[in-house]
Write a structure and sequence with these properties.
2 copies of one chain form a homodimer.
Chain A: H1 34-58, H2 65-72, H3 76-82, H4 86-110, H5 116-132, H6 136-146, H7 151-179, H8 186-189, H9 196-207, H10 216-228
Helix pairs in contact in A: 1-2, 1-4, 1-6, 2-3, 4-5, 4-7, 5-9, 5-10
The structure holds a DNA duplex (30 and 30 nucleotides).
Chain lengths: ~240, ~240
DNA sequence: AAGTTATGACTGACCAGTCAGTCATAACCA
DNA sequence: TGGTTATGACTGACTGGTCAGTCATAACTT
C-alpha cells in the first residue's frame, strides 16, 4: 500500500500539475539533445538495475528506496525524477524483466514445423536460462505473492507473456496431435502443464534446494518424455 | 497527563523466566484450573484464526497486528500474552495450517497395496480439498515468497510435509514400476513432479483465474493419465 | 546566465512492541 | 453467606524507529 504523501503545508503551487499516476516521469527533456536523452536513458536503466537486485532480494514492501539509491550510486530524490513512485518503479521493473522471456517466446512462435519435442525443449531452455539461472526467479516468486496486489502487473503478464506462451503451446500441441507426436490432446486442453515443472523448480530452488538437490534438467527431460511418449513398446 | 506513574508492584516477579524467543507465551496459568487453561487455549486459537485470515490476505509484512487484534475482537496487547512476537505468531500459524495436509499424507502412507492411480488421486484430492479450496492456498503463496526469510519455517515444512510426501510418492512409484502400472522410473527419480500441477493450480488461481478459467480437476486427471498410461494402443 | 538535473535533510504517516493501570473473578475470611 | 482482598488477563495510549515521498538548494550543461 503506497503510504500517504507527506502533505507539506507549503505554498499553494499546484495548478493542474501532472495527471495522477501516469507512467514516465523522466526529467522533462524539452530542449535536451540526444546526448542528454541518452544520459537520461542510462540513468533510468541504472536505477532499474539496482531496483531489480533489491526487489528480488527483499520483496516489494521490504525494499527501501534508500537502498536502491545507494546501490545505484545516486541520491534517493533522483529516483523520483525518473519514476513517480515506488509502485511504478516496481511495475516498470517487472515489465523490463519480462522482455527476454517474451522475446524467446515469439522467436519460437515464429518458427513452425520444428519437431514438437524440440520446441518443448526450447521453451524449457528459455525458462531455465532466463529465469531459473538468473535473479529473475526471485521476481517470479515475488509476482506469485504480490501479483494480486498489483492488477496492472498480472494484467500485463497475462496478456504479454502467459497468453502468448499458451497460444504457442496450444498450437504446438495441436500439431503434435496431428502428426502423432503426441498421444492425446492433453496439452491442447491444458497447455499450462508445460509450465508446471518449471514453476515447481523455482519454488524448490528457493525453499528446499539446500536440503535436497533437485536435478532440474533431468526432471524437465523426464517430463517431456512423459508428454511425448505415445507408447513405450518393449522389444 | 499521559499515563499515571503509580508504581504498582506488578512486574516484580521475574525469576529466570523463559529464554527469549522460544515458543509458547501463553499466560502462565500455574494455579489456574482446567477452566482457565481451556479459556486460554480458546483465546489462542481465536488469535490464530484471525491471524490466519489477515496473513493470508496481506502477507507477512503487510499484516498489521492491530488488524489481527481487531478481527479477533481483542486488544493488541493481548496478542503478546499468547505469542512473543509477530514472527512467532506467523510460524505457529503455518504449523497449525500444515496439520490437515500432513494428516492426510500419513493416512495415505499407512495404506499400502492400493492401486497407484488411486493413491495419486488421493494425494491430489487432499491438496485440492485442503489447500486449493481453502484460504490455505494464500498461505502457500506466502510461503513461496517469504520462506527464505524464515528458515525455521522451511525446515519444518521440508521435514514434516515435503519429505514425507516425497517418501510416500517415491515408494508408491517403486511399486508402480514393479507392478507395471508405471511405464518407467520417472516418478521414482522425480517425485516432485506429482506436486507440479498442484502448485501451478494455486498460482494460476491467484493470478490468472479471473482472466481465464482453469479446470483444475480436469488438468490433474489428465496429468495422472500421462503419468500412468504405459501405452495407449489403438484398437 | 538560464535551465536542467541531482542532492539529502526533512516531514509525517505508520506500526511492532511495551507497560501502567483496570476490572472481573477467584480465594480467603468472619 | 456476605464481605474483603488478591490475582492476572486484558487494555490501549505511548514510544522508538522506519521509510515513502518532498523540496530548498547545489551542481552541472549548454
Amino acid at each position: 500500500m503506497p503510504r500517504k504523501p507527506a502533505t507539506t503545508a507549503s505554498g499553494s503551487s499546484d495548478k493542474g500539475e501532472q495527471a495522477p499516476k501516469a507512467g514516465r516521469a523522466t526529467p522533462k527533456s524539452r530542449k535536451r539533445g540526444k546526448a542528454a536523452d541518452e544520459r537520461a536513458e542510462i540513468r533510468r536503466s541504472e536505477i532499474l538495475h539496482a531496483a531489480f537486485d533489491v526487489f528480488a532480494e527483499n520483496g516489494f514492501t521490504n525494499t527501501k528506496l534508500d537502498e536502491v539509491a545507494r546501490r545505484a550510486g545516486i541520491a534517493k530524490g533522483t529516483i523520483y525524477l525518473y519514476f513517480p513512485d515506488k509502485e511504478t518503479l516496481f511495475v516498470e521493473l517487472l515489465r523490463e524483466a519480462a522482455r527476454p522471456v517474451l522475446g524467446g517466446m515469439q522467436l519460437i512462435a515464429a518458427n513452425p514445423n520444428i519437431p514438437v519435442e524440440t520446441v518443448l525443449q526450447r521453451i524449457h531452455a528459455i525458462f531455465v536460462d532466463e529465469i531459473l539461472l538468473t535473479k529473475r526467479k526471485h521476481l517470479l516468486r515475488m509476482l506469485i505473492q504480490e501479483g494480486p496486489r498489483f492488477p496492472a502487473v498480472t494484467e500485463f503478464y497475462y496478456r504479454d507473456i502467459v497468453h502468448n506462451a499458451l497460444v504457442v503451446i496450444t498450437s504446438l500441441a495441436r500439431r503434435g496431435v496431428e502428426t502423432g507426436e503426441l498421444s492425446d490432446d492433453t496439452l491442447v486442453r491444458y497447455p499450462q502443464l508445460v509450465m508446471a515443472p518449471l514453476l515447481t523448480s523455482v519454488i524448490w530452488d528457493a525453499l528446499f534446494e539446500d536440503k535436497q538437490h533437485l536435478d532440474v534438467e533431468g526432471m524437465l527431460a523426464a517430463f517431456r518424455k512423459l508428454l511425448l511418449a505415445p507408447n513405450r513398446e518393449e522389444a
